[in-house]
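User: For documentation purposes, I need each entry recorded in a consistent format: the amino acid sequence on its own, followed directly by the corresponding structure tokens. There are two entries in this batch. Please keep commentary to a minimum and don't merge the entries.

Assistant: Recorded as requested. Entry 1:
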Amino acid sequence: MIFIMNDEKKLKPTLWRTCRALMNATRLNVLRLAIQNEGALCVRDYARILSISDATASISLRQLNARGLIGVKRDRIKVYYNDEQDRSLPDSIELQKAFATYFAAELPPKWEESIMTTLRAFTHFNRLAILIRLAQGPAYLNELYAAMGVCVKSIYHHLGFLQAAGLIHETRTYHGPSTFELVRPTDKIAATLLDLTLGNAASHAYYYNEGTGRATDKETKAVLKKVNRAEGNPRQNWRETGPVIIKPKPAPDTQPPSPDEEEA
């Protein structure tokens, strides 16, 4: 497995947490109202239009604002929220544009469930690691095991969410193992999330300390651990040695050890 990293862009390793924040029908409707409304609305306006309590509206608005999906403006004692994005978070800008395109069309029945099915595929760093691996080409289950370093049951669990979102395709053969490959989604939101995930990985979306060359963010370390888990030292200084080449860990041997091996 080869990962080529550069310094041209900085990855915001909060994309999967942003998707988790959006995994709520109330917050999705709050975001829809903020995008569709031309002017700014106060907390009570959101609560009145959506028939929710002021506290629920306030919490939802603050969570969306923390992810850079909506803007906030204070006018004396009132707080107004609008559709202005946080320019320091490019991922949120692209994601809000995708939602704006989606909300501009006629919304289908149960559209919240449809969006949450898509978002669920991006709410865990193991699923992001699988997408990054499959972007390099189709893979068998044992190859995903070697790249991920987690149990097969867990990999199947994550693959199920990715398949439900239409992001991967499983090719089954009569005698051989199944092959998993990445599929380009037709849904605008899913396509944007996939582009952000793969674009961040290709442009070295991980925070590194300039002096040590090591990850400095807890979330980034978790992604690196799952994506680059293998023998060797994936934390080597890639600025001096070039691309990090990871040797995949072989699949576990299910054969019992021989008597000679047990004595040894």
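Entry 2:
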Amino acid sequence: MVQYTTDAGETITKKSVYGTNPPKYSVGDIINIYYNPQKTDEFYIADDNIGKIVRIVFMLVGIGAIFIGVLVGTLVWIFA
């Protein structure tokens, strides 16, 4: 769980969508949070790399799928 106070003084308590086992942070740890001023319940932890890793993995899988699709399509076209 993460708790932070917005610039408007609103206190937000929310669970992060990413987690680790064992937890990266302990209860009471002070961490840097970035939040969306238009939707104050949307946030990310400044030094949390899990989201970046997930995005990179999905990007590489997508690029691989496109490459395989183009390769198979080309081979079918050539040998048809």
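Summary note for entry 2:
The chain has a mean pLDDT of 87.
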